Amino acid sequence: MELDFKCSDVGVWKKALSSYESKIESLNKPDLVSLDQYYRVELPSLLHDRDPNPYLTTSELSQLMKWKLSRGKWRPRLLDFVSSLDDSVVKSASEKAFKSLPDISKAVNELTVLKGVGPATASAVLAAYAPDIAPFMSDEAMEVALGNSKDYSLKRYLLFVAKLQKKSKELKLEGEWGGASDVERALWSCHVRSKSKPAEKSSSEKKRKRKE
After folding, report:
1. Which of 1, 97, 106, 211 gets the most CB atoms within 10 Å of its CB?
2. Domain of 90?
3. What is the pLDDT of residues 163-189, one digit of tens each?
4. In angstroms, how far apart are the furthest CA atoms of the chain?
5. For the chain, how many structural domains are there in total?
6. How far is C-alpha 28 from the chain's CA centre?
7. Does 176 reside within a domain?
8. Alpha-carbon gap, residue 166 to 120, rounded angstroms
């Protein structure tokens, strides 16, 4: 099933979202299942336990980066950069970022002072704390929502946020729905499915050829 961003049927979106965990598993990437559990469940809980002054530690940022790179494209240098950051610097920048919300532009700027952290990684940090308003800037969701995933600028992310927030509000009018991050995960799930189809076909064709 491919998901058209213009679709307003909340049932279709729910079906796409419900396939998220199985799609994570289907990628067969080392530690991705546990990393995804950490990112979506454990990390948000840790951050909110620190309210009213939430912050991120260097080790938590490293785990978040591992999740981001495992779910998307692996760029080891980014992991090296964030893992070497001083803990006090990460805490300070992330605390300022979280306090800046719901001003997403300001929040992203507070985080991108950190070496190795661009708007996409900053979006992952914000989405861990405030998933309803700040979706992760994944290539797959960007491709569906905006038509391409080559521009990782703050301006492009803000456009992405606006579109996903609008879609989230639209779906809530049609039925029970979460926030902008649920829109992102639904889009990611469908995009991963559509990309995997040719590979699956190719694999089955190879099996037939071996049998012949």
Report:
1. 97
2. 11-183
3. 999 999 999 999 899 999 999 999 999
4. 66
5. 1
6. 18
7. yes
8. 20
The four Cα atoms 111, 36, 15, 190 give a dihedral, to 10 degrees, of: 70
Q: Among 172, 167, 103, 108, which Cα is nearest to 136's? A: 108
Low-confidence winner among 57-71, 128-142, 155-169, 190-204 (lowest mean pLDDT): 190-204
Question: Are 167 and 174 within 8 A, CB to CB?
Answer: no
- Helices within 56-211 (DSSP H only): 58-71, 76-83, 87-100, 104-111, 119-129, 139-146, 154-174, 180-211
pTM, to two decimals: 0.88
**Amino acid residing at 108:** V
Range 121-159 burial, b when 16+ CB lie within 10 A, else e: bbbbbbbbbbbebbbbbbbbbbbbbeeebeeeebebbee
CB–CB of 71/46 below 8 Å? no
Whether residue 124 is predicted with pLDDT greater than 60 in this model: the reply is yes
Could you tell me if residue 66 is inside a domain? yes
Locate 34 and state its tokens.
């546990």
Burial 177-204 (b: 16+ CB within 10 A, else e): bbbbbbbbbbbbbbbbbeeeeeeeeeee
> Residue 86: which residues within 8 A CB-CB, separation 6 or more?
58
Asked if 16 and 189 count as a contact pair (C-beta separation under 8 A), the reply is yes
